[in-house]
Records
---
Amino acid sequence: MLHRIVVLGAGYAGAFCAGYLARQLHSDDFEITVVDAEPDFVERLRLHQLAAGQDLPHRPLREVFAGTGIRLRLARVTAIDPGHRTVTVADGEGEDQIAYDTLLYTLGSTAARHGVAGVDEHAFHVAARPAALRLRARLDELDEGGLVWVVGGNLTAIEAATEIAESRPGLRVGLATSGELGGWLGPKARRHLLRAVDRFGITVHEHTTIERVERAAAIAADGTALVSDATVWAAGFAVPPIAAAGGLEVMADGRITVDRQMRSVSHPDVYVAGDSAFVIGDNGRPLPMSCASAGYTGLQATAAIIGDRTGRTIKAHALSYVGNHISLGRKDGIFQLVDSDARAKPGALCGRSAARVKSAIVATSGWAISHPTFGKPSHKYRAATGRERSTALVAG
Ligand SMILES: Cc1cc2nc3c(=O)[nH]c(=O)nc-3n(C[C@H](O)[C@H](O)[C@H](O)COP(=O)(O)OP(=O)(O)OC[C@H]3O[C@@H](n4cnc5c(N)ncnc54)[C@H](O)[C@@H]3O)c2cc1C
């Protein structure tokens, strides 16, 4: 009987893992199904660009997985039942269940609201494609001089604010952050960031905690109202509650706790990669939610699945955190390396060359995801059957 591997999510972690498993596992023994709510691969790394008004490459998942043998189910995951090894999904046709023998959970994350009143009703964000498109539509409506406040002081907030300021020079952009803007950067990178923010004309309010978002203002803890035509909430990421509701052991923030091989500590037939996983990296600290972490954890999870299913030795892949790439519009950027304690190193690559490196990394990640078996069907499959694989779009 075929061993059913179900991959939840076809983002950076899920799409990569599914392709890798299809390359490595024999299709006579394994059936791989990927479930995602979106018909296209979502390049989350570039959603601030989409929101600012730029167009991104269109990468339909059906084409991405063509020729790999991977079954694609376009549906929203609404629940998991690890006790009965089933996943509940919903699409336009209704709800049904998918049974699995091995589950790979890579549902990623979305914007963290931190329980702040009014965020759901009045704020925009760039952590998911539909949300980025809503923000873009709102920016299109604004007149010259329209005011956009971005809330947050970390990578996504900086990238969103600078991208909007560069792409929409007629708008006024502000950044409100509870700490120091880029306070975690080394001195060279921080100086560069502050100069760039100044060049874009972005107003910065540091040590400003937003306690409430209203239709036309973000309200700070001291009562100051930041009048706003569009408030962009970019104060971190949070995972969906599906894993916790299904009974998997999770941290307080809902991320799934895993062992070093990326198996759920409560349900070892559930493997986790990407933003959904809480795992201690090689530096002794939790890996940050990032595209790089999705790559490292994806490599480790697939090695564990293959080892557990075939008896092959499970290689210990690095779980590293080496630094951050920050885009500052299309022509400027920062590449900040960190040391083994995750502290910023004093130097940094800044300016146009950092922007070029970042854009090459983003393009390479997008290309690699859209070629999950590097354009080739599994050599094992061809050797065994003499046939090419086809992709089945699994109906409801
Ligand atoms: C604007 C922006 C800029 C960023 N820039 C960087 C950067 O420069 N460097 C960096 O390292 N990281 C960056 N990140 C973070 C990075 O995008 C994430 O850490 C990374 O995408 C995590 O990969 P993942 O596979 O875990 O999740 P995702 O890439 O989010 O994939 C999750 C997939 O699951 C699907 N999904 C989610 N819920 C459901 C459901 N209920 N049912 C069905 N399908 C579902 C989604 O459609 C998606 O395809 C950025 C994020 C944003 C939003």
---
Amino acid sequence: MPCRLGCGACCIAPSISSSIPGMPNGKKAGDRCINLSDENLCKIFGRTDRPKVCEDFKASKDACGETNQQAMEIIAYWESVTG
Ligand code: SF4
Ligand code: SF4
């Protein structure tokens, strides 16, 4: 499925352990990535310093559900069982 642009759940719900531009220690689950715009778009999309984990994350029904709220819930759940 294509990403629902403006959702942003995968930039908020998960923890990211690798360094992110502007967040050298990564981020905790539930924290908003500093690179996420007010429109919930990645401000460093396409840049070579965008974390690999972000590059590798592909939208899928399993992760993103049917709505932005569902994506938040699903990814937060994954985080709670794997984090
Ligand atoms: S959770 Fe899925 S739909 Fe939402 S921004 Fe990330 S990839 Fe796109
Ligand atoms: S760097 Fe971009 S894609 Fe990665 S979590 Fe931050 S806003 Fe999302």
